[in-house]
Amino acid sequence: MTAFAADVMRLGQTRHTVRRSLLPARLGRALWIAPVILALTVTTLYPTVFLLALAFSKSTLGKPFRGFAGLKHFATTLQDPIFLSALVRSVAYALTTSLLQLTLGFLIALLFTSLLKAGRVLMSLVLLPLMTPPVMVGVAWKLILAPAGGLLNGTLLKYGLISEPISFLGHPLLAWLAIAVADLWQWTPFIVILCFAALSTIPEGVHEAALVDGANAWQRFRHITLPLVAAPLSSIYLLKLILSFKLFDLVYILTFGGPGFATTSAGFSIYRRAIEQFDVGRAAAETIVYGLVIGLAALPVVRIHQHFERRES
Amino acid sequence: MRLGARHIWLAVATAPIVGFFALPILYLVAVSFKTKDDVLSGHFWPTVATFANWPDAFEAADIAGFIFNSVTVSVFAGLLTIALALPSSYAVLRLKIGGKWLADVTLSSYMAPPIVALIPLFFLLKGTGLLNTRAGLVLIYGFANVPVAFWLLTPFLRRMPIEIEQAAAIDGAGPLRTLLEIVAPIIAPGIVATLIIVTVLSYNEFLFASAFTFSDATRTLPVGISLFQGDRLVNFGQMAAASLAGIAPVYLIALFMQRYLVSGLAHGGVK
Description:
The structure holds two protein chains of two kinds. Chain A folds into two domains: 3-55, no CATH class; 72-312, MetI-like fold (Orthogonal Bundle), CATH 1.10.3720. Chain A is built from 14 helices and no strands. Chain A has helices at 3-12, 15-20, 22-55, 72-79, 81-114, 117-131, 134-145, 151-158, 172-199, 204-212, 217-244, 249-254, 266-276, 280-312. The longest helix of chain A has 34 residues, at 22-55. Chain A is globular. Chain A starts with a helix and ends with a helix. Chain B has two domains: 1-50, no CATH class; 61-267, MetI-like (MetI-like fold, Orthogonal Bundle), CATH 1.10.3720.10. Chain B is built from 14 helices and no strands. The radius of gyration of chain B is 23 Å and the shape is globular. Chains A and B meet through helix 1, helix 3, helix 5, helix 6 and helix 7 of A and helix 1, helix 4, helix 5, helix 6 and helix 7 of B.
């Protein structure tokens, strides 16, 4: 605690009580962080405890905790090939699409940086996809990809590239691709904004000095720009990874997990188990497994970020 | 001459990017003016424009009611988030209450996907009688976005010179008065950006809204639109019109507040 903070606290309370006893002062201080503690309790602590309790008990959506179930739900979860493959798909999707979007977003940010003033105008334009409700993003892409009358099929047919309309959302791999494109449309702008900010922190002089030394564009990029933004880039990747693990809305609107279970992500699978099948005990076990998998998948990225940060300081 | 070539090259690189990001929205606009038969044509623009989809969409479902629910829920939730996050982030960063661990715990709580909280919050709302109410959604969103607000406010609070608060303390202002009368006006751009972003997050939210509301009186627009498409006799023109009506409020805010938003997001920054 800084001396100043102590001053402020003392002035915040009626002077005399604070000097006489520490307890009211402590309570006063605790009051300041009570809101965030309350929010964390409701949205994180309570759900975690509740989920653990659910995962070990017999429950339905109507009546939770109707008896002890032991490890039954975890055993079912770990033996369920559909859920396990949903887990694998979710992780693979998050890791690859985040990397793709980071690369693309970084390149666009480089382009916007060199556009100077026009780049700033474009920056407010790319804000729009980010602000669009994901459900509406799904609707728009569904219209583009529709087999009957969709823009993509219409265009491909018109130029004779295909003779029959393709059901993009009815094909396992193409359906994932469709989700990835809609996701890319929505989130790459966010990455562009963050990369643009990271790039603008590089001091002007550094580039000029390298220019004087005769470094070409690629050398300047490789040996100056890239090392300077490596730490921010790794945390942008981590942030996008976290967002990707939340994938739900686009799956719901574009494919509803289909065809079959081909595009069922872990989150979507848990949602259906709880809300449609009312099997909340098993859904809770699945959620806990998913949470652990996310932690494991994110760990290497956190390590990379720490490595870059240490190198910088 | 050299400069001209460079400009052309940059424009050539930029055009497809702008095109890609504009395409889905432009197509929604086009489809919203298409007749039922025209929708199946696969052309971009309507052959004959019709305006019928717009009033029809508002009649087919209670779109106006859904938008009203979305706006009220998200505005109250946004204000609640700021009311919770501003004093706490100020306390952690400037008054050094709670320490670094609290900031770390708050931020890392954002890592868990919302699906984790779905079932527990369902039972919480059910137990408190707030299931299927707008007040329930306001509370959930208001709490859930606190980590985001914390993250966005942090750099604004950090950059503020300490001398301002010291001067306030010497003048005898308590920490609460200092925050409300001196600090808040200084970091107003950050507060505005944060308020808009958390409000839009609530406005766009779908998972909780779809699980915690089940009557037209409480549904938000994303849920309303998702039901539209569950309908077997889905009319794409109406669906596009309804979607655009829901997007419009967010785009208006983005247009008028872009300066705050870009700087808010950019500074919210990452190290």
